[in-house]
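Need the bound structure for FE2/S2 (inorganic) cluster, inputs here:
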Amino acid sequence: MFPIVEARVLGPNVKEFEIAAPRVARKHQAGQFIILRIYDRGERIPLTIKSADRERGTITIVVQAIGKTTSLLNELGKGDSILDVVGPLGKPSEIEKFGTVVVIGGGVGTAIALPTAAALRDAGNHVIAILGARNKGLVILENDIRAASHETFIMTDDGSYGEKGLVTDKLRELIASRGVDFVLAIGPIPMMRAVAECTRPQSIRTVVSLNSIMVDGTGMCGGCRVMIGNSSKFACVDGPEFDAHEVDFKVLMQRNEMYKESEQKAMADFRLNGGEEVKRVRGACANG
Ligand code: NAD
Ligand code: FES
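Answer from helper R.:
Posting the output first, comments after.
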């Protein structure tokens, strides 16, 4: 069992968990993820590690409740435990001295971009962060991102905080007004695709982190297959970060939609009977 040592709400349906997982914490590098399973019959879900504290032996993840398993997870709190945590998985982020880098976090993708932004800053880059959210209430981790970057721009779709517009509006402005050497974009697929199109004309190196469906996380099951250029790759072992200009976003979107119907059904059942399931999971935690 992996005990939850801290939990806090970051925004609507978004929660941060600090989990005791000393071996994962010791080996973690920015950009890597874990696969967790809350209980024995539970689904296995990938979650990128936001940070690791080697001394405390903990890792921190940020979870957006969008399906049954993430909703169940977000019902847990300090003192509860998670059955399995496997990781760190995936290749670490590419950290080099590029020059001026723009790190873009769309919605909850901000949590995933954070450790790489900090690592790029520590490698001597000038880091400009752009955070995008639909409205002020959905902006998360602003202070952490400000600490990890030299300049931070907040964009909201409705203009309720920062500047009104999409992350790509600010990116275009930055590309036009000063040199940009490298872009990292993490967030919803339409955002990552739009960022790739903004940087393609000038061939600015651009990296995205792909949130494909994953099962084993070891390259064996084929669940996370993505098309990069004309080759098939597995996001769990070849990624999750890839050259944005090579990613076939259409295939990624189609594959992520494959289980939509069963996910919706599981979510509907959870809305009806979720209370019982949460109690069962909590009971299992208490029994060790
Ligand atoms: P969202 O839909 O509210 O979008 C966040 C911001 O992204 C917007 O405010 C906007 O600035 C930008 N954006 C969105 N679509 C855009 C477009 N077409 N063009 C330009 N900019 C655009 O974000 P959310 O609700 O927090 O995101 C949830 C989605 O992100 C989920 O589908 C989740 O699976 C995905 N996600 C992806 C990753 C990853 O590793 N890539 C990680 C976490 C979540
Ligand atoms: Fe099975 Fe990647 S999750 S191959």
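Comments: The chain has a mean pLDDT of 91. The longest strand covers residues 2-11.
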